[in-house]
């Protein structure tokens, strides 16, 4: 008889099924929060491919988030491109930007790599801030339209739902497919090579791995998925603004990855949920929410140095070892 373990439970399928019920059993507020968590979770997971899997610390990951958001918004509003075409176009544009920036970044290591990613991100932010004719400049690019959701309203059980609730399902499916793709990438031979580079880049290079080429590939893939997250967020936010590419946005997503657990695939999603939930709760009680949030994050990071998911995995591993020894 096979022994039951928590690993045998299809947690991803259960979570996806539970998420389908959010607009049905939850209020508009909770649906909005869930949409925010899903998009930011994808954004953080894309960074985790660099930070947790490859060992590359990027301080400018928001650049690709912003590129994807602006490209999708401009394509849909200015040129009337339908959402099914605008979304992949945003991902491709972000991947191309990551290819250009990454070509230079991967030639440096450690803090120099991190600072160069920040420098490129500030260039993107400056372009978004100053190019008034295209991006709207400081005022941003507002009134981004929702995709055509009329076909969803005709489906049984969805006819009474508002546009925001229907858009949640679009986000859920897109994010689910992206997370599935990222999961396959991290578990593939390519992903194992990235892990080898993270553990010991000198040894990886010694055995014949072209470290820079694989780091650049990871950089481009991470940029692509960050761009898709940015495109979804621009529509959800009904506007795209230069702050999407500012360094503070990169710091925010970095905190999500660290809080959830670097190297843990589901860690960034948990980190995104935790940060959004804390932000929502604290802002409802005090205007000094940045101070309170900062203190809570310090406590959480000290209490869970491996991140929330990482600490939980270590705890479950300890229980399994004790079970075998008993």
Strand residue percentage: under 5%
Please, how many helices? 16
Terminal residue distance: 19 Å
Radius of gyration: 20 Å
Secondary-structure-based class equals: mainly alpha
Q: What's the pLDDT, averaged over the residues?
A: 90
* Biggest sheet statistics: 2 strands, antiparallel
Give the SSE string.
Answer: HHHHHHHEHHHHHEHHHH
**Uncertain regions: pLDDT < 50 for 5+ in a row?**
none
List the strand order in the largest sheet: 1-2
Helix amount:
over 70%
Q: Which of globular, elongated, flat, extended, rod-shaped describes the shape?
A: globular
- Count of strand segments: 2
Brief summary of the model shown:
Helix content is 74%, strand content 1%.
Describe what you observe in this structure.
This protein has 326 residues and is mainly alpha-helical. Helices cover 74% and strands 1% of the residues. It contains 16 helices and two strands. The protein has helices spanning 11-20, 22-25, 28-54, 62-77, 83-105, 110-130, 132-135, 150-153, 163-187, 189-199, 201-206, 211-237, 247-260, 267-283, 289-303, 308-325, and strands at residues 141-142, 239-240. A two-stranded antiparallel ribbon has the order 1-2. The longest helix is centred in the first third of the chain and has 27 residues, at 28-54. It is globular. The two termini are 19 Å apart. The mean pLDDT is 90.
């Amino acid at each position: 008889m096979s022994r039951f373990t928590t690993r045998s439970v299809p947690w991803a399928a259960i979570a996806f099924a539970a998420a389908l019920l959010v607009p049905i059993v939850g209020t508009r507020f909770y649906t909005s929060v869930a949409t925010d968590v899903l998009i930011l979770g994808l954004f953080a997971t894309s960074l985790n491919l660099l930070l947790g899997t490859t060992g590359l610390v990027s301080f400018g990951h928001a650049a690709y988030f912003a590129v994807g958001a602006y490209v999708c918004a401009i394509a849909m509003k200015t040129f009337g491109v339908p959402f099914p075409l605008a979304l992949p176009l945003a991902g491709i544009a972000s991947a191309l930007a990551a290819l250009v920036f990454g070509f230079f970044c991967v030639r440096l290591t450690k803090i120099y790599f991190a600072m160069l990613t920040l420098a490129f991100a500030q260039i993107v932010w400056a372009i978004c801030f100053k190019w008034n004719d295209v991006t709207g400049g400081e005022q941003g690019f507002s009134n981004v339209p929702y995709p055509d959701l009329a076909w969803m309203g005709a489906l049984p059980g969805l006819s009474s739902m508002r546009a925001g609730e229907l858009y949640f399902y679009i986000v859920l499916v897109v994010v689910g497919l992206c997370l599935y793709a990222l999961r396959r990438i991290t578990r593939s031979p390519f992903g194992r090579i990235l892990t080898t580079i993270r553990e010991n880049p000198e040894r990886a290079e010694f055995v014949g791995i072209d470290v820079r080429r694989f780091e650049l590939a990871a950089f481009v893939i991470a940029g692509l998925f960050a761009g898709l997250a940015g495109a979804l967020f621009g529509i959800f936010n009904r506007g795209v603004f230069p702050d999407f590419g500012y360094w503070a946005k990169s710091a925010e997503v970095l905190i999500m990855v660290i809080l959830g657990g670097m190297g843990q695939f589901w860690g960034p999603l948990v980190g995104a949920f935790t940060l959004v939930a804390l932000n929502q709760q604290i802002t409802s009680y005090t205007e000094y929410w940045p101070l309170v949030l900062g203190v809570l994050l310090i406590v959480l990071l000290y209490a869970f140095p491996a991140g929330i998911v990482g600490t939980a995995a270590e705890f479950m591993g300890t229980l399994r070892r004790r079970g075998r020894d008993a």
